[in-house]
Amino acid sequence: MRSNEIVNKLKEAFPEEIIEVCSFANQTSMVVKKQRIVEVMRFLHDNPGLNFGHLQDLCGVDYKDTKPYRFEVVYQLFSIEKEHAIRIRAMLPEDDATIDTVTPIWDGASWHERECYDMFGIVFKGHPDLRRILMPEDWQGHPLRKDYPLKGPKEYWKGFQEVLRKADEYRQYETKVLD
Amino acid sequence: MEITEGQNIGLHTQELTLNMGPQHPATHGVLRLILEVDGEVVKNCIPHVGYLHRGVEKLAEYRAYPSVMPLTDRLDYISSMVNNIGYCIAVERLMGIEPPPRAKYIRTLLSELTRISSHLLWLATHALDIGAMTVFLYCFREREWLLELFEMLIGARLTVSYPRIGGVRCDVNREFLCNLKEFIKEFPDRIVQYETLIDQNRIWLKRTKGIGVISAEEAVRWGLTGATLRGSGVNYDVRKKMPYDAYDEIDFDIPLGSNGDVYDRYRCRMEEMRQSVKIIEQCLDRMPEGPILAEDAPDLDMNPRGHRMLDGEFSVWGAGLAFTDEFVTTPKGELYSAVEAPKGELGFYIVSDGTGRPYRMRLRSPSFIHASAIPRLCKGHYIADVIAVIGTIDIVMGECDR
Q1: Does residue B141 form part of some domain?
Q2: B137-182 pLDDT, tens digit each
Q3: Is residue B1 part of a domain?
Q4: Is the peptide bond before B22 cis (omega within 30 degrees of 0)?
Q5: CB A143 to CB B58 under 8 A?
Q6: Which of A102, B13, B80, B394 measures 20 to 30 Å from B109, CA to CA?
């Protein structure tokens, strides 16, 4: 199916959800509202003409100061049978960075959403196990946000301080070289 | 006498929580699994990742497009060539650069060499984990040969950084081609050697058949890709579905399994190596003459075109610095571009805001998704089979943790 047909089909089903349709480098993406995201995804997944079975990617983007809303959650979909692709981008404002989870549709979305939570602080409502995944569990802040510095704060992370302390402690057992 | 439950004879039994990793020889890096076991049977499994997190996505936001390349080398460090190529293709699509045909063929050829090298390492360690020591030694013999080939061409064995945005760094030389021809003549026989060692081996069959079974629908729902998915019989290969480089001009098959167990995935990868040899042969036959870098390719830190090297203010170092946000503008937009890495689908999602640096670069790494499916694959199996499952999904933690 051509991408404009997919767009039309989705526009028919959810006329009020779709805000914008963008096209770049032969790829089409749709900006949608976040409220009914699960219904939109379910439609894309279950509709026999669309059949988007494969969730290629799910990630967050921080558009601080460049767009009226701050975050986007990007769903990259592909249909293995029909061989067509579409990208769905859900808008999230800064003061309400939450969205419903799509784990009931794709099990593989689970870790993607955890990573997104870890890196951007976006909360996925209804996720079975929303914990940090790549960063340590007691980490402060969300590294991929634009206001997070590339080089960390002056003070080391607690876990690393512990390592340094232990290294100091064990230094007394080092073998001394006799002159 | 048959004892089914401990309580029957007054013994106290309980479920144990077992910590496997992060330092464990069979976890292929630093993967930590928390296993809840009832005797020998795994009831639940919680993977912990992130020990190798380096923040590649964050670092990429602060670097010019060409300087991101060395970061991609260190994702899946045993098949760095495919990572580089995947990244280059993503940026080429963003900038609208078309690499010349010769560069496309060279890249295709090297992608497949990398695939063989990665699959050899997978087979070696997978067999070693299960207990077939000899295969390990045989596989490393051929892998060494491959790494020597890379060294002949590029000078580096693992972290190659060979492709460039818009082409490749240097042309293939005669020494490399002669050795490569010898390799592909010899290699199919070597695959037969590995197969005679394990294919009919009763221990191997017992350890792999019916282990880690996943149905086709479920595998797609879990987001599995690569040979891990094709073992379940789903015909999904990025090389066929979204062709890049010269793959649309080359004739090859996608091997598929049917049962979706460890054995079928093993068979898939073995057949894939044969297909790779076929692709390399075709690449060598059809490789056209011509330039290896597109005319509109951005300047890079190692410029292959002599006339711009080291004359006056255009030093090698200066050429690299020319490509920063002040001088070069990229089209505004966002795109997703995927390649078939040896582990599965490696995707790059790049958001460009018009400057010379990516506004956001997202890496869809297959190992990360595959690691998330470990609990599904090893539930209900014995602890020893967890090793087989980790081996079969072929994860590399450098790519998983990014």
Answers
A1: yes
A2: 899 989 999 999 988 888 888 888 888 888 888 888 888 889 999 9
A3: no
A4: yes
A5: yes
A6: B394
